[in-house]
Amino acid sequence: GIQVEQSPPDLILQEGANSTLRCNFSDSVNNLQWFHQNPWGQLINLFYIPSGTKQNGRLSATTVATERYSLLYISSSQTTDSGVYFCADSGGSNYKLTFGKGTLLTVNP
Amino acid sequence: NAGVTQTPKFQVLKTGQSMTLQCAQDMNHEYMSWYRQDPGMGLRLIHYSVGAGITDQGEVPNGYNVSRSTTEDFPLRLLSAAPSQTSVYFCASTRSVRGGNSPLHFGNGTRLTVT
């Protein structure tokens, strides 16, 4: 199946800083998604983005499907952005999503 | 809409006991799935279903059974619990696996401890 590599594994920011998280995929992307797991364990879907760029407030994501990677941008970070960010994709025509191991983001006040 | 509802939130089992984790969604989603989350391992797919009456195995299916008798419900059964099944379990669903633009929605999880 598809392999998903996330970087960096850990990131510590001061409130107000910007950051970029990256996912690399070993196969073509079809159902690429980004998720945020908050400190209470809830998993929230941020973006469904198999190609192109999307923005939602301070967050935006870009997927370059031809090069099999995706970037998540967080601008003007807030303490509520803390948590683990996951990317996932199915790598084929079905919907068996494989997740990366995540990026643990800590935003300090 | 309640979204994806999982029960119970917490459960402690003894080795060898069986139990069922419940998952229900009220969004008329075709696709439902179960993941387990372990420290340092991300989320791994256990079983999934693309519609009522259809189920298939994911990456880590051993020790678990599922069924999909209705569109709304997708229970996960542990046949004989083992300490290796101590984990946080998430149920997730999406509208359709055809046609794209189908974000995955997660329930709030069930934390299971097997002693």
Which range does the strand content of chain A fall in?
over 45%
Q: Please report the distance between the alpha carbons of the first and last residues of chain B.
A: 36 Å
Helix count of chain A equals 0
Biggest pleated sheet of chain A: 6 strands, mixed
Distance between the termini of chain A: 40 Å
Explain how this protein is built.
Chain A is mainly beta and about 110 residues long. Helix content of chain A is about 0%, strand content about 55%. In chain A, a hairpin with a 2-residue loop joins strand 6 (about 50-55) and strand 7. Chain A starts with a strand and ends with a strand. Chain B is mainly β and about 120 residues long. Chain B has no helices and 11 strands. In chain B, the strands form 2 sheets. In chain B, strands 2, 4, 5, 6, 9, 10 and 11 form a 7-stranded mixed beta sheet that branches. In chain B, strands 1-3-8-7 form a 4-stranded antiparallel beta sheet, with no helix packed on it. The mean pLDDT of chain B is about 95. Classes of the chains: A mainly beta (about 110), B mainly beta (about 120).
